[in-house]
Amino acid sequence: MLVRRRADLRRKPSQERSSFTFEAILDAAQQLVLGEGTAALQMSGLGRRAGVSAGTLYQYFPDRTSVFMALADRAFSRLLRDLDRALHAFPEAPLDPFLEALSTAVIELACRDHRLNLALRKALEEAGDAGVPVDATESCASALAAALKPRVDMDEEKLLGAARIMVWAADGLLDGALRRDELPVVELRTALLSAWRGILR
């Protein structure tokens, strides 16, 4: 989901050592969540598993919800970074091959963290209004419009509007599949590609 809530951390890692500690905590949390589910993530056990003291753990994360949100943040940031790479991977491709390659990349990236996102979904829904609101729709739409501009004969405003609708279509399609715990890759790619072609007509 492109509109979501980001963890409101007590402390953000600023130096290499603290970034390493922060990532070690998240790696241990991800192993727990994927291996045993969100119920298995208890702060005391997480600190031991990550090899950090309770004081260090609580410097970053006030509670389990903040850990879940930080895990989702990390997966989401990686998704956005890799989507940006995918947008620029085919600079000379005509429109249709570009859309085919991009739809494949979007579905593959969604599948990569599917198990983690599915495991975190209930915990994040229970968190309600915790964290900081984040909406990546505009940044994704702007990047997509810039990548489409040399391939589509549309004025900038209409192109940005079309790119927004394309982003919403992808987000809705993938969110629906995640909610059903189904990621039929070929069907999703076909549906996404068909929706995108229709939007750009």
Break the fold down into its secondary structure elements and pairings.
Blueprint: E1 3-6, H1 16-36, H2 43-50, H3 54-60, H4 64-88, H5 95-112, H6 114-127, E2 132-135, H7 137-148, H8 156-179, H9 185-200
Antiparallel strand pairs: 1-2
Folded structure, characterized:
Helices cover 72% and strands 4% of the residues. The protein has a two-stranded antiparallel ribbon with strand order 1-2. It is mainly alpha-helical. It contains 9 helices and 2 strands. The radius of gyration is 19 Å and the shape is elongated. It has one domain: Tetracycline Repressor, domain 2 (Orthogonal Bundle).
In short:
This protein is mainly alpha-helical. The chain has 9 helices and 2 strands, in the order βααααααβααα. The chain is elongated, with a radius of gyration of 19 Å.
Count of distinct structural domains: 1
| Named CATH topology | Tetracycline Repressor, domain 2
SSE run: EHHHHHHEHHH
Overall geometry comes to elongated
Coarse structural class: mainly alpha
CATH architecture name: Orthogonal Bundle
Give the distance, in angstroms, between the N- and C-terminal Cα atoms: 26 Å
Mean pLDDT: 86
Low-confidence stretches: none
Strand portion, in percent? under 5%
Q: Mind summarizing the main beta sheet?
A: 2 strands, antiparallel
Helix content: over 70%
The total count of helices amounts to 9
Number of strands: 2
